[in-house]
């Protein structure tokens, strides 16, 4: 365990675990992907998941308000029919 293999990586493309061996470019030995170009994909915390869920709920509620307005228009149409 005396050898310093450098920084450990898990390839973002193929999932291969490897060490960069202190090379300037941490490239996957299997698929050659440059790990510096890996997309930032942090695991979500419970708080972030709840925040995302709350945001989705807000967006889902918006159409419901429009439906309520449509009902009002239908009531007006019924009233107009009663006048005839
Ligand atoms: Zn790879």
Give your account of this protein's structure.
The protein is mostly helical. The protein contains one helix and two strands; from the N terminus they run ββα. The protein has one helix spanning 46-83; strands at 8-10, 17-19. Strands 1-2 form a two-stranded antiparallel sheet. The N and C termini lie far apart (93 Å). 2% of the residues are buried. The mean pLDDT is 81. Zinc ion binds next to loops. Residues 11, 13-14, 16, 28, 30-31, 33 line the site of zinc ion.
Describe the SSE topology.
Elements: E1 8-10, E2 17-19, H1 46-83
The structure holds zinc ion (ZN).
Zinc ion binds at residues 11, 13-14, 16, 28, 30-31, 33.
Number of domain modules: 2
Strand content: 5-15%
The major sheet is characterized as: 2 strands, antiparallel
Regarding quaternary structure, how should these chains be classified? single chain
**Distinct compounds present:** zinc ion
* Structural class estimated from helices and strands: mainly alpha
How large, in whole angstroms, is the Cα Rg?
Answer: 28 Å
Q: Summarize the helix and strand pattern as letters.
A: EEH
What integer is the average pLDDT? 81
Shape: rod-shaped
Quick structural summary:
The chain is mainly α. Helix content is 45%, strand content 7%.
Keywords:
single chain; 84 residues; mainly alpha; two-stranded antiparallel ribbon; 1 helix; binds zinc ion
């Amino acid at each position: 365990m005396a050898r310093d293999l450098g920084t450990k990586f898990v390839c973002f493309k193929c999932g291969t675990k490897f060490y960069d061996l202190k090379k300037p470019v941490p490239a996957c030995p299997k698929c050659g992907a440059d790990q510096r170009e890996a997309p930032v994909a942090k695991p979500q915390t419970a708080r972030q998941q709840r925040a995302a869920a709350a945001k989705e709920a807000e967006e889902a509620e918006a159409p419901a308000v429009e439906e309520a307005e449509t009902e009002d228009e239908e009531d007006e149409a019924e009233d107009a029919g009663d006048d005839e």
